[in-house]
Specification:
The complex is a heterodimer of chains A (141) and B (60).
Chain A (H helix, E strand, L loop, with lengths): L16 H13 L3 H5 L3 H20 L12 H15 L3 H8 L10 H28 L5
Chain B lengths: L6 H20 L3 H30 L1
The chains are: A mainly alpha (141), B mainly alpha (60).
Chain lengths: 141, 60
């Protein structure tokens, strides 16, 4: 039989959950927390500053926090996606909610930028969580 | 306290924070991180000015 298929690369052994779960949860709760836990203080501080400032600017601009609401497919996608991104801010999101931050969706460019800032800070924190995971599993320095 | 930023200020801050995190999380050495963060920031600003001028020219 002709060898038309390339040999599959050997699979990397997956790291046990106990190795990465702590840094990933720390990274979710406190932006940069996963890096601090793994002694990457400089990078952790930059992530903490960037994500926190972005979130605070979002609050200051009275951005809207998404709630998981159902509707047509687009509404469901936007609301659930936005909610997950907001939730990815970890303790920042929880504290804001506990202190009663609730802004209705209203027109206005500043308000709209605020909503985008709140969502994007969560997305950036997800990037930081993935980075913390890769450091914990030895895929990255 | 309510913060009111112009379009440019908001987009500039967005570009700055996003570039910092993307630079940190994307590359493996500090030099590569710095270069990639600066590259992302430059791309954001270039897009900001280009799209801004396009809109201005489009609207007259």
């Amino acid at each position: 039989m002709a060898q038309s298929q390339a040999a599959a690369p050997p699979k990397e052994p997956t790291a046990p959950v106990s190795v990465w779960i702590g840094p990933v949860i720390a990274a979710w709760l406190i932006p940069g927390g996963g890096h601090f836990l793994q002694k990457r203080t400089g990078r952790g501080a930059l992530i903490l500053a960037s994500v926190t400032l972005m979130f605070l600017f979002g609050l200051g601009m009275r951005g809207m926090m998404f709630t998981p609401e159902r509707g047509d497919i687009l509404t469901t996608l936007i609301n659930y996606g936005g909610f997950l991104c907001n939730l990815a801010n970890g303790a920042l999101y929880i504290v804001a909610r506990v202190f009663g931050y609730e802004v209705p969706d209203m027109p206005g460019d500043v308000h709209d930028y605020g909503t985008k800032f709140l969502v994007t800070s969560g997305l950036l924190n997800i990037l930081a969580m993935v980075d913390a995971f890769e450091i914990a599993t030895g895929r990255k320095d | 306290m309510k913060i009111t930023l112009s379009h440019f200020e908001a987009a500039f801050l967005f570009a700055l924070f996003t570039s910092v995190v993307m630079g940190i999380t994307s590359k493996k050495s500090d030099k590569e991180r710095l270069n990639y963060g600066a590259y992302c920031f430059g791309c954001f600003l270039l897009a900001l000015f280009c799209i801004g001028w396009l809109e201005r020219l489009g609207h007259g």
